[in-house]
Write a structure and sequence with these properties.
Keywords: Transferase. This is 3-deoxy-7-phosphoheptulonate synthase. It is a single chain. By secondary structure, the protein is α/β, with parallel strands linked by helices. The protein has a single domain, classed as Aldolase class I (TIM Barrel), CATH 3.20.20. About 35% of the residues lie in helices and about 15% in strands. It is built from 9 helices and 10 strands. The strands form 2 sheets. An 8-stranded parallel sheet has the order 9-8-7-6-5-4-3-10. A two-stranded antiparallel ribbon has the order 1-2. A hairpin with a 6-residue loop joins strand 1 and strand 2. It is globular, with a radius of gyration of 16 Å. Bound molecules: phosphoenolpyruvate (PEP).
């Protein structure tokens, strides 16, 4: 029922970064927090490329229970230290309603991942956390289901919600998921909430991250969130989609060259 599109502010007073219609926010960082050194290096890479918010998972929802699950609270502590060192506010995923309080103590923004979009207890707990929420689209969710998931957060009094299109499951195996770029204008026609795009988790391949970021900016997204890693070959999670060197420089250039088209 909002007439104007909203801006969500992320970070501590005096250091807040906007996500909304007046800017294209660049969020970058490691898929997973693996160590203090790796997270600091990834954050420095992200910052030099122009990112203004740091991403990084301390709790990793993995398809296999035998894969690296994240460092948990130790990872949150690393993220808080790296925020001190770089000045970048932090967005990090919470996967369990019981962890919302501790994640909110450390993070500037809570991320709800694709696998938890319809975890209503978690959405309600995030709605009571007092922190902005980045709500990823479920990989098999319709746009309406996604917007209704956002209502579970809003209903608890938290309107600081940013939507994130991160690809949906289709019959096409060339990419991990299919980035539904049309979701951006469809959401913007229906909802006042900011919407950003995650080309890294959609494609699963670093070669596609820059072109899909360009597409996101061109279609009017309010930002992009991408994975970077100082040594993708050694990454414990999603190395093939992590940017470094040339691709990161290309993305930095694309972010600077494309003014928001809206
Ligand atoms: C992530 O951003 O770390 C992540 C796991 O993304 P998604 O929930 O979109 O798969």
């Amino acid at each position: 029922h909002h007439k104007d599109r909203s801006t969500v502010w992320v970070g501590r007073p005096g250091h807040q970064v906007p996500i909304g219609p007046d800017t294209v926010t660049f969020i970058a960082g490691p898929c997973a927090v693996e160590s203090a050194q790796q997270t600091l290096e990834a954050a420095q890479m992200a910052k030099s490329a122009g990112a203004t918010i740091l991403r990084g998972g301390a709790y990793k929802p993995r398809t296999s229970p035998y894969a690296f699950q994240g460092l948990g609270v130790a990872g949150l502590e690393i993220l808080a230290d790296v925020r001190e060192a770089t000045g970048l506010p932090v967005v990090t995923e919470v996967v369990d309603a019981r962890d919302v309080t501790v994640v909110a103590e450390y993070a500037d923004m809570l991320q709800i991942g694709t696998r938890n979009m319809a975890n209503f207890g978690l959405l309600q707990a995030a709605g009571e956390s007092g922190k902005p929420v980045l709500l990823k689209r479920g990989m098999t969710a319709t746009i309406e289901e996604w917007l209704m998931a956002a209502e579970y957060i809003a209903q608890r009094g938290n309107l600081d919600i940013v939507l994130c299109e991160r690809g949906i499951r289709t019959f096409e195996p060339a990419t991990r998921n299919t980035l539904d770029i049309s979701a951006v204008p469809v959401v913007q026609a229906t909802s006042h909430l900011p919407i950003i795009v995650d080309p890294s988790h959609a494609a699963g391949l670093k070669e596609l991250v820059v072109p899909l970021s360009r597409a996101a900016i061109a279609v009017g997204a309010d930002g992009v969130i991408v994975d970077v890693h100082p040594n993708p070959e050694a990454a414990l999670c999603d190395g093939p989609q992590a940017l470094e060197g040339p691709e990161l420089r290309e993305l930095a250039q694309a972010m600077r060259l494309f003014p928001k088209l809206l």
